[in-house]
Write a structure and sequence with these properties.
heterodimer; A: alpha/beta; D-Maltodextrin-Binding Protein, domain 2; five-stranded mixed β-sheet; 8 helices; 10 strands; B: mainly alpha; 12 helices
Chain lengths: ~270, ~270
């Protein structure tokens, strides 16, 4: 390169270099105090429902995938995990009525779907266990047009409107049920030919695994999604630290062991509780 | 003149714009200060008002944080300022005689304008991409295809807005006049482009006008920058408030229409 060309671009390169260094330095600034607050208190608070197997079980020996995962993350971050079990979670379809606040929870677990609906309220960190709408029937398929389908939507944040629209487009009549017990009864008594519910809710159904088959429901509007840990919107530095800890756990193989231990992969099984 | 000579002419005009802009520290400082002010000060300052306090209760119902929502809009703001203020260089060249010297050359006027607009667009795209350095701060993750698509859209948008700057320059006779003109155009266009607050895509028009006054919704919907910001949001954070094709049509439409009008104006000058 000739000296004149070097001289021509020297000033421009110096100016651009200074600008880039300044912006890179600015990008390293912490955008909030969420991580430093937790580090000061030494505690990471996880809010979970009473039971949402296998993500939250209430069993001290095997407390659940989300509880153990959050414990490992807290440990990686040098914090102590405090699990707050809140019976209000899942009591109502509207999460607003659960009254979960920043004061109670740093992270929300136990059945948070990584969906656009959830991300309207929380930031999410996918945990690699799969959830979504599943069908349960004797044949392992959806019934013919005009049949009744019992629907237990649950509280994970899956898209209920998309499910309802899809059921109508298939010519099926969705019948809302209020509890796993009612869903099991409707299916067993023949009131409904097929049941539709959230993947992990199916674990709480009293169904004969030999007589019923579970299958993923998939359409353009809803596919299985990952479950997630939910963090408050705007807690950017805490989210980064949790993601970094999760990446380290994945690299060490700890997460894979945890997934196998709780069977939270994509394979569907019905268990008789 | 052969095609090669004409291309060299376009290149020379382009290179002059690039050299001048990259040596101009004041312009570069402007390109840095805007993202710093908008993302670091405004974004972080307003963050507590948009973050969740109670699960299920949030005023800002979009699946992204406020910083993520603001990020593509700040890119557009940087492009708007640099592109439209490019007109200053046209006025400068006109006032100090450089334009006259170029215009008496055998180069066709349309190619001189093309070289200038390409130079302005390149600099505006560079200023827009400076904002991308703050992606980590805003928690925006970009893949290589996303980055390339965003840069492509940014360049076409910059081309249209630089042409718009030339149209303005043809109607303004002094530097002082242009300063006022640019502020009365850039900031109103930016603030009425759904840049700092969302039009909720899940709402019907009737619902939307209960959240915002109808005149504001109307201004946002007729503002072409609304669709440019929306197109970049679609690419960068995967969130569109309007059908994605609208943004592309508006960005490419602006580039063609403004360049043609700039050609007519430049030909007359």
């Amino acid at each position: 390169m000739s000296r004149s060309v070097v001289n021509r671009w020297r000033a421009a390169a110096v100016n651009l270099g200074a600008v880039i260094v300044l912006l890179v330095a600015a990008s390293l600034l912490p955008p909030d105090t969420s991580l430093s607050d937790r580090e000061r208190s030494g505690v990471l608070k996880l809010c979970v429902p009473q039971s949402f197997p296998p993500l939250v079980t209430g069993d001290p020996e095997m407390p659940g995938y989300d509880v153990e995962l959050a414990g490992a993350i807290a440990s990686e971050m040098g914090l102590r995990l405090q699990v707050n079990t809140l019976p209000a979670i899942g009591r109502d379809y509207n999460p607003r009525n659960w009254s979960l606040t920043r004061a109670q929870c740093d992270i929300i677990g136990g059945g948070v779907a990584d969906s656009a609906q959830t991300r309207s309220f929380l930031q999410t960190i996918p945990t690699d266990s799969r959830t979504g709408w599943i069908g349960i029937s004797a044949t392992g398929t959806m019934p013919e047009t005009g049949s009744v389908v019992a629907v237990l939507p649950g509280t994970s944040g899956l898209d209920r409107v998309a499910l309802s629209t899809w059921l109508r487009s298939q010519g099926l009549r969705g019948q809302l049920v209020r509890s796993p017990v009612q869903l099991s009864q409707d299916l067993a008594s023949g009131v409904a030919q097929t049941a539709v519910t959230e993947r992990f809710l199916a674990n709480g159904l009293e169904l004969d695994p030999a007589a019923n088959k579970a299958f993923w429901l998939e359409s353009d509007h809803f596919a299985p999604v990952s479950t997630a840990l939910g963090l408050w919107k705007g807690d950017q530095t805490l989210k980064r630290a949790v993601e970094a800890a999760t990446t380290r756990l994945e690299a060490s193989g700890s997460l894979e062991k945890l997934r196998k231990r709780y069977g939270v992969g994509a394979e569907l099984t019905l268990t008789n509780p | 003149m052969t095609a090669i000579m004409l291309l060299r002419g376009v290149y020379a005009v382009w290179l002059r714009e690039i050299t001048r802009a990259t040596r101009d520290r004041a312009q570069l400082i402007g390109g840095v200060s805007r993202p710093l002010i908008w993302l670091l000060i405004l974004g972080v300052g307003l963050n507590p008002y948009f973050r969740g306090e109670v699960y299920g209760e949030v005023r800002f119902v979009i699946p992204f944080t406020y910083l993520q929502f603001l990020f593509p809009a700040v890119i557009v703001l940087n492009i708007m300022y640099t592109s439209i203020q490019f007109a200053v260089s046209v006025i400068w060249d006109r006032e100090f005689g450089f334009l006259r010297e170029v215009l008496v050359s055998p180069m066709p006027r349309r190619l001189i304008l093309l070289g200038k607009v390409l130079g302005g667009s390149t600099i505006a795209t560079l200023h827009g991409s400076l904002v991308l350095i703050l992606a980590r701060f805003a928690d925006v993750t970009l893949s290589i295809p996303q980055m390339l698509t965003a840069l492509g859209l940014m360049f076409v948008l910059a081309f249209g807005l630089t042409s718009f700057g030339v149209i303005l320059a043809a109607r303004v006779r002094s530097f002082e006049g242009f300063g006022v003109f640019s502020n009365t155009i850039i900031l109103p266009l930016y603030f009425t482009s759904s840049s700092v607050f969302p039009l909720d895509p899940s709402l019907t028009r009737t619902q939307m006008v209960t959240a915002y006054p109808e005149w504001l919704v109307f201004l946002m919907q007729i503002n072409p920058i609304t669709y440019a910001v929306d197109a970049l949001r679609g690419v960068i954070i995967g969130f569109n408030q309007f059908p994605p094709a609208y943004g592309l049509m508006v960005i490419f439409g602006m580039a063609v229409v403004f360049f043609v009008v700039a050609l007519i104006d430049f030909g007359r000058s």
